[in-house]
Structure of Rap-GAP domain-containing protein:
Amino acid sequence: MSLRNNMNQVTENKSNRNNRNKISEQLSRNPLYSRSTSHLSLGADFSLSKAFLPVIPPEAEKPLEPYQQCRLFLSHIGWLNPDTFKDGSISMLDKGPALYRDIRLLDKKYSRECIKVALLYVGSGQEDEQSILHNTNGSNEYDEFVTSLGWEIDLATHPGYLGGLERNSTNGTTSIYYCNSTLEIIFHDVTRMPTDPTDLKQLRKVL
């Protein structure tokens, strides 16, 4: 009985080796096969079989008319029918210099409402504009209030709305900024802006 079991095991091992050799031979003919890749990992990867080879789509057809893609888009959203033109849902634009100018400036417009807010710290006993604009810092309560309005940004690298603040440190290096999906607010904190001792009116702080 033991001899028969040993013979069966030898036969089974030989059959397994033959199967592995067949798999290796098939994989070696595959253009996606790499000699540096493990045979065992490739043997378990059915994506390399012929039925699962990637199919490259044909090159997209070039539109026959300049506005073919536009017509296709309008058709998909249900606007390309006579009724939409009758009820005034779609109106034709006047093709002229003004239209081309507006299109060029379209990308420069902000997608959200933008607001700039000036923050002034008025110290004890300060009543005139000059002394207020010369403040280089505020009280602890003022600083806590300012930081609660948004988050601090670096003016040199901030990609959002600046409200006229310069990136070259002319108006300081940081500011407070807040935004959501529909709104951007930049806070011009006078105490964060550099003070010019030769300018009594501090015109750089008045934006």
Q: What stands out?
A: The longest strand covers residues 113-119. The mean pLDDT is 76.
